[in-house]
Amino acid sequence: MAAPSPAGAASAAASPSPPMQLPSPFAELVKGPAGLEKIVLRGARNCCAEIYLYGGQVTSWKNDNGEELLFLSSKAIFKPPKAIRGGIPVCFPQFGTHGNLEQHGFARNRFWTIDNNPPPLPVNPAIKAFVDLILKPSEEDLKIWPHSFEFRLRVALGPSGDLSLTSRIRNTNTDGRPFSYMFAYHTYFSVSDISEVRVEGLETMDYLDNLKAKERFTEQGDAIVFESEVDKVYLAAPSKIAIIDHEKKRTFVVTKEGLPDAVVWNPWDKKAKAMQDFGDAEYKSMLCVEPAAVERPITLKPGEEWKGRLVLSAVPSSYCSGQLDPLKVLQG
Question: Where in the sequence is the active site (predicted)?
């Protein structure tokens, strides 16, 4: 498989020509804004998802009622080398400013290619709508991060409308060197109003507060609610986290594997106004909850492969005295 385009804005201006064949009859390759190519996955009823080859990035996930479940900014810029604001950007090999590379690493602003012959991956035979993508380093990438790798990403829609992302990263260095990296699925959820949302499953967890020089604290509340800017990395987070949207009577269930941490982020008003590709008031209708590996980077020896998985589902919230029973969501 050919390596992705070089990193620079000029070289990234046009996507490489991907193979025309898609492995699933429920996947279609179409043109998006600015001519960027995207894959549309069509599941049962009206469930669908959209994935751009630029960034290997999911930008849309709709339920069987056709409702959008992910947030995508109305001011998102679909022009390389700018990352797309919203959906599920992939942060690799760095998260945020925890390193010497550009913020969140380079995977989210490189062109990926369709992988028509990926190594076997155990799958549910009921899953029909999926696509496999691959990213390899260009010569320019090797200058800023001198490690050879293969990053494979499978995006799939389950029969009940669940969205899953499975990442496999292999160290293909031929000089015997291991490498270490951070990772996050930078998931932007669409919510009714951030003040009506609570996150459950992270109670009593330790976290690093990025607004306080990455200082370590312990979560005190019985749930996370939002009244101001939040940028926290929860450590050793559980495999399931619930995002409860009271106004929409909807709960997102975030299930993660191979990713010990969870980032919770909302920029609030001041930071929203300072971002060129983000509407001034859009912070009210989004929340990022991101399965991640931040505190302890993942290390791979040559030939070793890591797998990290994210599964998203959206279920109706059931109320009892105005509250959702989190045990039914997190353990059921």
Answer: 186, 290
Question: What is the distance in angstroms between the CA of the first residue and the CA of the last residue of the chain?
Answer: 42
Proportion of the chain above pLDDT 90, given as a percent: 79
* Catalytic position from the list 98, 104, 147, 186: 186
Q: Reply yes or no on whether 290 is catalytic.
A: yes
The band of 6, judged by pLDDT with boundaries at 50, 70 and 90, is: very low
Q: Where are the domains of the chain?
A: 27-316
Q: Identify the three-state secondary structure at position 8.
A: coil
The response to whether 103 counts as a known ligand-binding position is: yes
Question: What is this structure's pTM?
Answer: 0.89
Residues 6+ apart with CB under 8 A from 175: 302
The DSSP call for residue 311 is: E
Task: Provide the strand spans (E) within 78-220.
Answer: 90-91, 113-114, 129-135, 149-157, 163-171, 179-185, 188-190, 197-200, 206-209, 215-218
Of the listed 50, 150, 282, 290, which one is catalytic?
Answer: 290
296 is in an annotated binding site: no
Report whether 300 contacts 169 (CB < 8 A).
yes
Is 21 a known ligand-binding residue?
A: no
Task: Kindly report the CATH class assigned to 27-316.
Answer: mainly beta
147 is catalytic: no
Three-class SS state of 149: strand
